[in-house]
Design a protein that fits this description.
4 strands; globular; 131 residues; alpha+beta
Length: 131
């Protein structure tokens, strides 16, 4: 059903649909592992991948676009390296948005560790929901 996984984060794996994003924030469930927050829903999307992801960093916490873009790049990179855990665990299509909540920039290694925790918590939550 799904495409074999590659360690990339291509165009089809990114969340772009305004309708899906709106639905995500209206109906979505939330998981928090500070400084990350994931809002997710189980939804059919046009991609042939099991998950579409978006990342966001609030302008309120980081005034300069340079800082926001750097953190978004770090979030996408840590997700790209850890997405195989989700791809192996899910059999339905999911859409989620990962937001950065801290007011200062964390080191890459710390964000990577928290991303692993967030994704494993996501997997445990969806497996509990299916039971």
């Amino acid at each position: 059903m799904f495409v074999p996984m590659r360690f990339t984060l291509g165009k089809e794996e990114r969340l772009k649909s305004k309708k899906l994003i709106g639905r995500l924030y209206e109906e979505g469930k939330i998981i928090k592992v500070f400084p990350l927050r994931m809002v997710y829903i189980q939804a059919e999307h046009t991609s042939k991948f099991p998950a579409q992801v978006g990342v966001s960093v609030p302008k309120r916490n980081f005034k300069k676009a340079v800082d926001r873009n750097r953190i978004k790049r770090l979030l996408r990179e840590t997700y790209r390296k850890e997405k195989h855990t989700i791809y192996e665990a899910v059999d339905k299509q999911y859409v989620f948005m990962i937001s950065y909540l801290a007011r200062d920039e964390w080191k890459y290694a710390d964000i990577e560790h928290k991303m692993k925790k967030l994704l494993t918590q996501f997997i445990t939550e969806i497996t509990q929901d299916e039971k």
